[in-house]
Amino acid sequence: MKSLVSAFLVLLAGLGSYFAPLGGTLTPNENAPTVTPIPFPTKGIAGEPFLTKSPEGSIFASWLERQGDVTSFMWSRLDGSAWSAPHPISSGSNWFVNWADVPSLAVASSGRMMAHWLERLGEDKYAYGIRFSVSSDAGKTWSTPAWLHEDRSPTEHGFASIEAAPDGFVAVWLDGNGYATERQEMAVHSRTIGFNGQLGKESVVDSRTCDCCPTTLTRLGDGRMVTLYRDRSGEEVRDIQASFWKNETWSKPVVLHEDEWKINACPVNGPSVHALGNEFAASWFTAAGGGPKLQALFSKSGGTAFGDPVRLDLGNAVGRVSVRMRTPTEAAALWIEGASSTPNGLVLKSFSADGAVSEAIQVSPISEGRSSGYPRLETDGKSLIAIWTVSSDPATIKTARISWN
Q1: Which of 110, 184, 249, 357 is buried most, with the most CB atoms less than 10 Å from its CB?
Q2: Model-level pTM?
Q3: What gap in Å lies between CA 240 and CA 157, rounded to an integer?
Q4: Domain containing 186 — which CATH number?
Q5: pLDDT of 121-161, one tens digit each?
Q6: pLDDT reading at 94 higher than 70
């Protein structure tokens, strides 16, 4: 992964002077949302935040805290306008901590939860795997950690996404077993996990994918799941693919939109998807055509077809997008926009199924570097909650409520 990432950074450096902002300064928007900070209960060095929501509508945050050589995985629930006291999930001194490949939390009904994090599988920098634990008492106690995947080779296994299902959880992840063989390719794998931690059969969603772009997963109203990830064709085209899970089987992957982004490197910039009912909204980064873009679209026909994409960025997209649907026909996207744009930093826009796009607002200043990680969005049905890493010394986490009058 290291060589691919380095190649991509060199590519961006060469194109930097070509990227130009679009549209200039934005005019004031009378319907712009209000951003209200919410103090977050971290201590020490904190980062790698994640947001999720329970079926009952409660919003949960998870994150990592580091003290010396020990990393701890924590969670908190948003109660009204304040976060609860932090609760521990697990901790260790042999964990793999990465700005893009972050732990996550999934919450099912009746307080049943699943958490995943990363631990090393060898001495190589990217030799690590996915550990998980489940809780049946609303996060008070957790099961003995177990490996999510069958392969234990000293290769990369990560970028997992987890969603609650009627009988447990569904997980997808990037599996590096191919790098332990002559294939030298990453794949997307999946399996079910029971509420008691019992693992279902592991399956392959796609046998050749981009090495280190985060996956994303959401559950549709009829019980199906859809996962998006960055593909890797034999010609090194790295567009976003979609696959649907039904009756414990994944469909043949299809291209979300033919950007035709051909690049012999991994951009470490994954898509985001979120469903409301049987339709979903998605957004993703691409540099097809020579410049960075952030695109978004809605599905149609019960999630089996895709609408035309709209462009969200302001001309200098860094990406790392997070999407949440606000209504069946409107969604919001949160991403990082480069300093030469106005606004810039952590930026939010709304977009609709008919192609309308709102003006952008700045949620917060934020570094464009890796230390800022991936910002996240969640919705409580009325407003949005944002969480992001502040790359200060020491690093910390901030949250805010984004609401409309």
Answers
A1: 357
A2: 0.91
A3: 20
A4: 2.120.10.10
A5: 999 999 999 999 999 999 999 999 999 999 999 999 999 99
A6: yes
Structural domain count, the chain: 1
Contacts (Cβ under 8 Å, ≥6 apart) of 267: 8, 210, 213, 230, 238, 285, 287, 319
Rounded Cα–Cα distance for residues 257 and 242 (Å): 10
The residue segments making up the domain with residue 62 are 2-403
Q: Mean of the per-residue pLDDT values for the chain?
A: 92
Type of residue found at 395? A
Hey, CA dihedral for 148, 150, 155, 161, is it positive or negative?
A: negative
Task: Look up tokens 């049946």; give the residue.
Answer: 136
Q: What is the rounded distance in angstroms from the CA atom of residue 299 to the CA atom of residue 274?
A: 10
**pLDDT confidence band for 30 (50 / 70 / 90):** low
Residue at token pair 């976060």: 83
Q: What are phi and psi of 56, to 5 degrees?
A: -80, -10
Among all chains, which residue has been given the structure tokens 């709304």?
A: 350
What the block records as the tokens of 350 is 């709304």
- Measured between its terminal Cα atoms, the distance across the chain in Å is 45
